[in-house]
Amino acid sequence: MNKQEFMRTKPILPLLLSMGVPMMISMLIQSLYNIVDSIYVSRLGTDAITAISLVYPLQNVIMAVSVGVGVGIGSVISMNLGAGDQEKADRAASVGMFLTFIHVAVFILIGIFVTKPFLQLFTKDAQVLQWACDYGYIVMIVSFGSLIQICFEKIYQSVGAMMTTMLALGVSCVINIILDPIFIFGYFGVPAMGVRGAAIATVIGQIAGMILYIILYRKRGLAVCISFKKMRPEAELVRQIYSVGIPSTLMLALPSVLVSVLNAILSAFSEVYVAVLGLFLKLQSFIYMPANGIVQGMRPIIGYNYGAGEKKRMHKTIRVGLILTVAIMAVGTLAAQLFPQAILSMFDADIQLMDKGVEALRIISIGFIVSSVGVIFCGTFEALGMGMKSLIVSLTRQFAVNIILGWILTIPFGAAGIWLAYPVAELLGAAAAVILFKMSKV
Predict the structure, then answer these.
(1) If DSSP codes are grouped into helix, strand and coil, which group holds residue 297?
(2) Residue 8's pLDDT band (boundaries 50, 70, 90)?
(3) 15 contact partners, CB below 8 Å, separation of at least 6
(4) Rounded distance, CA 437 to CA 431, Å?
(5) Which of the residues 13, 24, 77, 98 could staple to 231 if both were Cys, CB 3.0 to 4.6 A apart?
(6) Rounded CA gap, 131 and 147, in Å?
(7) Where are the beta strands (DSSP E) in 310-434?
(8) What span, in angstroms and rounded, lies between the C-alpha atoms of 23 and 30?
């Protein structure tokens, strides 16, 4: 029997939970790291938070490319395993790793030549620029750990090995959390390095996760084989990977472009709003990461069953995933509405940052629940190899509406107009997702 046959035979809810919960835990650990990182950096002052907020778009581009292409690799692997084509699944994993090596070289060059000119577009403050460069150069030039780790992660997820991915991501994040205060403030004989120390802790954690994957793969093997001999970039496999990977990358990169544009708009009012947006993005990840864990658990189930011709089972997986995601978003909405001060106090927010942050959190969180529709259907389209449909939904809910409507609303409402655009964008994105899914007739 095919080792992945459980994806076609195990009851949907237990199967989705067995694959989604480890990813939810992984995402929560990663979100916890993001928040702990910001808490430590916040002790250096608002300028330090602003600095790493300005670098976020560049970091997100790395994540977008690695996760986006990884989703493409996973889609091809899971559908071919469902169809019983082991050889093609093995070639997809190997070619995917080869493409990742190319991306590593590209990001080294981007880190060297693009980091400072990009950051100079968004701040004239010499201290903020210096700290942003200190952080940005390190996380960009030493990004190979993140890229290779995420490629392994998506390959493991495609065959349902979620516990391994949870372990690797957990180790990576725990190492980051432990090293952050040591390198930022200087403990145990290590010199205090400020925001540069936060960046060093980040890349060390990423490299540790990558090394753990290599060790586990060599010792235990996997349901697909990654081989240097099979890394020859066949045109058809590259096309299949990038047909999902490019739209998925663009979808994940949209927040970088969005944040860059919104930072430019908000900085015209005050740089405190840039800090507010940066903190919100950290908090948002804590809410959306568990939902993304459900999506990551869904993708291989949907892809496998679609490849195996089990469409009723595929549709049930989507419904169950949507219900679970709505529940997660409801909890996030309640927390944001009832306890915004307590949440922001974790970051030692001063009076101005607290005041503006509470307003932003309460307004934006109105759209959390309805965003479940866009999140689930984007993941569904990616699993089915329909990358462009996923991109259209993301363009609606994470880009066009936020920028255009947000800019218009700043005229009567000031910076709050940006926050008001978020829930409207989520509503329109949900409508687009439902329409496109019905049109796909799967």
Answers:
(1) helix
(2) confident
(3) 6, 7, 301
(4) 10
(5) 98
(6) 24
(7) none
(8) 10
pTM: 0.80
Instruction: Give pLDDT tens digits for 258-312.
Output: 888 888 888 888 878 888 887 887 777 778 888 888 998 999 999 999 988 899 9
Report the C-alpha gap between 72 and 381 in whole angstroms: 11
pLDDT at 1 over 50: no
pLDDT confidence of residue 349: 66
DSSP state of 10: S
Listed residue (75, 97, 105) closest to 231, CA to CA: 97
Q: Which residue do the tokens 């942003």 mark?
A: 132
77 and 304 in contact (C-beta within 8 Å)? no
Question: What distance in Å separates the CA atoms of residue 249 and residue 405, rounded to the nearest whole number?
Answer: 24
* Digit-coded pLDDT (tens) for 128-152: 999 999 999 999 999 999 999 999 9
Q: What is the pLDDT of residues 26-65, one digit of tens each?
A: 777 776 776 777 788 888 888 898 898 889 888 888 988 9
Of 124, 134, 162, nearest to 27 (Cα)?
A: 162
What is the DSSP-derived secondary structure letter of residue 190? P
The whole-angstrom separation of Cα 279 and Cα 220 is 40
CA dihedral in degrees (75, 81, 83, 85; nearest 10)? 110
Do residues 287 and 332 touch, judged by C-beta distance below 8 A?
yes
Angle made by CA atoms 302, 254, 267, in degrees to the nearest 5:
150
Coil, strand or helix at 433: helix
Nearest to 187 by CA among 198, 195, 179, 176: 179
- In the block, which residue shows the tokens 């697909």? 224
* Other CB atoms within 10 Å distance of the CB of residue 14: 9
User: What are the φ/ψ torsions at residue 4 (nearest 5 degrees)?
Assistant: -95, 15
Q: pLDDT tens-digit profile of 334-352? A: 988 998 888 888 776 678 7
What is the average per-residue pLDDT within 196-219? 95
Letter for the amino acid at 19?
A: M
* Rounded-to-integer distance, Cα 11 and Cα 313, Å: 9
Q: Which residues contact residue 412 at a Cβ distance below 8 angstroms, ignoring those fewer than 6 apart?
A: none
